[in-house]
Amino acid sequence: MTVHPFVRSIGAQHPRVRDLLALRKDGSPGRIMVEGTWEHDRLLTTTATIEAFFWCPEAGPEAGPAVVDRIADRATEVYRISEKLLARLSRKTRSDGLISIARVPEWRPQTFRFTSRSLVLVADGVEYAGNLGTLIRTADAANADCLVLTSRRARPTHPAVYSASRGTVLSTPIVEFDDIPSAAAWLRSHRFRVHLADPAATGTYRVPQYDGPTAFVVGSEGSGLSRAWHDEGFDAVSIPMLGQADSLNVALSAGILLFEARARKEGW
Question: Can you give the CATH number for the domain in which 241 is found?
Answer without folding.
Answer: 3.40.1280.10
